[in-house]
Design goal:
The chain has about 170 residues and is an alpha/beta fold. It has a domain of about 120 residues: 3-Layer(aba) Sandwich (Rossmann fold). Helices cover about 60% and strands about 10% of the residues. The protein contains 10 helices and 5 strands, in the order βααβααβααβαβααα. A 5-stranded parallel beta sheet has the order 3-2-1-4-5. The protein is globular and about 45 Å long.
Length: about 170
């Protein structure tokens, strides 16, 4: 695992972000890791929640797969058992982001709210794509095509495409 660059954000990706990018182009998350900050994939989420993505696929895309400690797994299970809105896996993403000093990379509204209430950064899944465009690592047309491809399989993303297009249009050429 490469060291975390000082000043670079560290993202803990949840299952929905991994699935969205897997359905469109997983290599984009690799570009996020390369040019913005590392994207970590929790092994248990990869194993249990993301069909079609393997360790080899993560490595090829430039994503780092990490293990959660037994203590963190137990803590996530305890939180889930309280019956709150988050699943075990959501709690795990939140707790790992807290422990590692990172941000949750998610489109899940409940997870975003929980992260923020615990003082943890939460970043919407499409935000790093806008950063890649801003850095000149991705063209606007390609970004829009990618988001439309994701939205074809995710009804939530269909709702945010207009906002994404607006933000994309506001970026310099």
């Amino acid at each position: 695992m490469e060291p975390h660059r000082v000043g670079a954000p560290l993202y803990i990706a949840d299952a929905n972000v991994l699935i969205d990018f897997l359905n469109a182009d997983l290599k984009v998350l690799g570009l996020v890791s390369e040019f913005i900050g590392p994207v970590l994939v929790l092994r248990v989420i990869l194993r249990d929640e993301v069909d079609g993505l393997t360790l080899a696929g993560c490595a090829k895309a430039g994503l780092q797969v990490v293990d959660s400690s037994v203590e963190t797994l137990i803590q996530a299970a305890r939180h889930e058992s309280t019956g709150r809105l988050l699943s075990f896996y959501d709690w795990l993403v939140l707790l790992e982001a807290k422990e590692r000093g990172g941000a949750c990379l998610t489109n899940d509204g409940a997870l975003i709210k929980a992260c923020r209430s615990h003082g943890i950064d939460a970043v919407r899944g499409l935000a790093p794509l806008l950063q890649l465009v801003s850095l000149g690592k991705f063209r606007k047309k390609e970004a829009l095509e990618l988001v439309e491809k994701m939205a074809a399989k995710n009804s939530y993303l269909r709702k945010v495409v207009p906002e994404f297009v607006k933000k994309l249009g506001a970026l310099p050429k």
